[in-house]
Amino acid sequence: MSEISSCSRSKHRFRKKFQLLLAIVHPLHGSMNHECTKCPENSGSEPGAVSIADCLCVAGYTKENDDLCVSCVSGKYKLELGNNACVLCARRKYKTDPGPGLCENTCPQNSYSEVGANSISKCLCKAGYTNLIGNICSVCIAGKYKTAVSDEKCTECSTKFAI
User: Residue 100 falls within a domain, yes or no?
Assistant: First the structure.
């Protein structure tokens, strides 16, 4: 019996059910059709894969309930071949586009975002800073304050003191 060559990356060996049964009864005839078949869209495999179960989601895609590989949503990423879940972008980072890619965008200086940010609008000015013009956080001017991370403006200091 001749040796079967391995399938290349992103392909798997596919044998129809009757060929598998025939292989049990008569191994020579059952191994006649060893065609390599391309993995489903947005998935791939390591060389030598033997079934569609060996097809894994490519970077930027994750396995859904119906076994399809779907794009990571914006604010999430995945770097490797596999069916694992997409990961949220770290604090102060954001990713605007779905699919492949890293969370390479960083919030502007003196701003902050929670994990999973998907746009610069999720970057909020730190306490003591306000957003004056186009996502640039500037220190509150004398006589004003801000105590929380938010997109709120600085508040006037009270001239009255409680007794």
Answer: no
pTM of the model: 0.71
Average pLDDT over residues 24-50: 71
Total domain count, the chain:
1
DSSP assignment of the chain, as one string? -PPPPPPPTTEEE---HHHHHHHHH-HHHHTS---EEEPPTTEE--TT--SGGG-EEPTTEEE-TTS-EEEPPTTEE--SSSSPPPEEPPTTEE--SSSS----EEPPTTEE--TTB-SGGG-EEPTTEEEEETTEEEEPPTTEE--SSBSPPPEEPPSS---
